[in-house]
Amino acid sequence: MLNFAAKKIKDHLCDFTHHRPAYYAGCYHSHSNMSSRNIILGIESSCDDTSAAVIADGLLLSNVTASQSVHEEYGGVVPELASRAHQLNIVPVIDTALRRAEIEREEISAVAVTRGPGLLGSLLVGTSFAKGLVISRRQAACALIEVNHLQGHIMAHFVEPSPEMVEKGYIRGLTLADLPLRHPDFPFLCLLVSGGNSQLVVVRSPHDMEIVGQTIDDAAGEAFDKCAKVLGLPYPGGPWIDKLAKQGNPAAFHFAKPNIPAYDYSFSGLKTSFLYTIRDMLREQHLDSVEQLLELTPNLKEDLCASIQATVIEVLMTKLRLAAKDLGIKRVAVAGGVSANSGLRQAFVDYGNKYGAEVFIPPFAFTTDNAAMIAEAGYYKFLREDFCPLDAVPYAKTRI
Ligand code: ADP
Ligand code: MG
């Protein structure tokens, strides 16, 4: 079963089942495909989550993720440790994803893997594994597909999970109460906010995305994480700020808001403003540590969290509103790790109510890094036979 948008794209293609090329990468020979289904194995390893997912004929059958706790004591991701943890996790994670989907290695039509952006050492683990898998299947039908991680986050909006597999608990973080998932029509404006990126993207199709605004310094997630670190909260700090903000007053503090032209963002000044606010309070009260300050002032931590969260959300929504108005787009979506933030999700609901816009918010399971979104992006590329040669190398930084 193809999901709605995939069906639309498929209608525009020739009958690809009869015209598959024997691909140069040695990966595709239609006549030797053992399965009549289109089966995509997605692999994600760009940062500190090792994830694998299986999509069969457009339906997500499994999504398995191993997160890395090793970074907690360092207050941030340590690249070398991340690569090593991916090495440990990748085989069991992929094996579990295939087993849960009841798919044999020989049945895989294509391996879709995150090629970038991300940490190079981490990306090398996923891409090398994907290539190895494709090479091991050289005599049968198996293609390699590269996926841009940021496009993957946006394509999370098109994932169609199998209700049966959701019920079995094979799709990490999803329950039957989350179904059915809604998928946006094209075009739509997507606010992509994660630990490394903050962008406004006009999405015209799965293959046609244009960045119309982006951060000129820190990302929104980075701002949350850095402010959380000042407050002594564990890494990643975004979810902690979200939690504490619920008990705080969002109007307790006023932080400097960036004044950047057009649809671009900036969050480094906000972080500095947050630091200065705390520094001034320490001076006033003749204290030397943030820990003491937080201990002595009732609800200060909660108020700071609520205020910084409210400011980040206001900055994000102001540019989204401006871009949507100027571009005449009435359909808006949010994606990336920060889209898990409860305040931002509510801001999208409010935006929809106020401006009569159609709003799309992903289920929590598909907000932070996961392979379901990579398999989904790969699935659309598969339908176009948009394959990747085996000598492709990962990239650390890129635009969509
Ligand atoms: P990456 O940048 O590696 O693609 P993700 O897409 O997984 O990362 O997003 C991770 C970021 O999302 C982190 O900065 C984290 O703090 C942030 N984040 C996750 N949950 C929340 C939340 N509830 N509120 C705010 N930020 C959050
Ligand atoms: Mg991400």
What's the story with the biggest beta sheet?
5 strands, mixed
Could you say which structural class the secondary elements and strand pairing correspond to? alpha/beta
- How would you name the CATH homologous superfamily of the largest domain? ATPase, nucleotide binding domain
Shape: globular
Helix content: 25-40%
Examine the secondary-structure arrangement and name the CATH architecture of the largest domain. 2-Layer Sandwich
Bound molecules: adenosine-5'-diphosphate, magnesium ion
- The CATH class of the largest domain, by name, is Alpha Beta
Strand order of the largest sheet: 3-2-1-4-5
Number of strands: 10
The CATH topology of the largest domain turns out to be Nucleotidyltransferase, domain 5
Determine the mean pLDDT: 90
Strand content: 15-25%
Radius of gyration: 22 Å
- The number of helical segments is 12
Distance between the termini: 28 Å
How would you describe this protein?
The strands form 2 sheets. A 5-stranded mixed sheet has the order 3-2-1-4-5, sandwiched between helices. The chain has a 5-stranded mixed sheet with strand order 8-7-6-9-10, sandwiched between helices. It has 2 domains: 2-181 and 368-383, ATPase, nucleotide binding domain (Nucleotidyltransferase, domain 5); 188-362, 2-Layer Sandwich (Nucleotidyltransferase, domain 5). With 400 residues, it is an alpha/beta fold. Helix 4 crosses helix 12, helix 6 packs parallel to helix 8 (268-284) and helix 7 (238-245) packs across helix 10 (300-327). Helix content is 40%, strand content 16%. The model is unreliable at 1-33 (pLDDT under 50). The structure holds adenosine-5'-diphosphate (ADP) and magnesium ion (MG). Magnesium ion (MG) is lined by residues 149, 153, 194, 336-337, 369.
